[in-house]
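User: Second chain of the day. Same drill as before.
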Amino acid sequence: MNLKKYPASSRGFVNHGWLQANYSFSFANFYNPERMHFGMLRVLNDDLIAPSMGFSTHPHQNMEIITVPLSGVLKHKDSMSNEWLYVKPNEVQVMSAGTGISHSEMNGSKDDYLSLFQIWIIPEAEGVQPRYNQQAFNPEERKNKLQTLVSYIHDEETNGLKIHQDARLSRIDLDKNQDFTYKLKSEKYGVYLMNISGKVSIGNEKLDTRDALGVLGTTEFTIKSEEVSELLLIEIPL
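Assistant: Same format as last time:
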């Protein structure tokens, strides 16, 4: 098993006033040739957006875009006639940009900051029909067990949202002193694990809040929680 730790402090950071963003991979003005992607995972941005601010209408093509609000409320509209849909914590939003889509993502509150992860995954095929979906997830269903949020559109998995890539995005909330063993499809896949909060260990690596870990060359690994912890796991073709 090969483990590569990415400390939270090693991420790119930008403060635009209305937006404070941490970049796990090269993005915008942050460039690190050793942090271009993890397999088909291209972007994992950790954004904090000021009240009533956000990203005005802009285009995308041929990318699977997943948004995970952590606190606050996101509002979304796009060129597929979706007019100001609201996405809250414990919900997930997926867009398949395909042949082309324009969208806006704004903080839907006039008072509170919006915290979210935005994730881009390179699709297995270009030129697909653009589509949008969102879904709510019960946090009780990820307490000390894995909750699938997003999976491959051709998988038999019936829970969660779907994308055009053989990937799986999951969350788990662990109590203190819990062990959980994650099983991968095969050694052709890796897992990029983001420790949302808390303190965990995997092998000889210890992760604090917002530290990440790339797990390669194995079909399973065990997470041990040292305190109450929340984790996001992205299994992806390498």
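Residues 48 and 193 are 20 Å apart (CA to CA).

User: Great, on to the next one.
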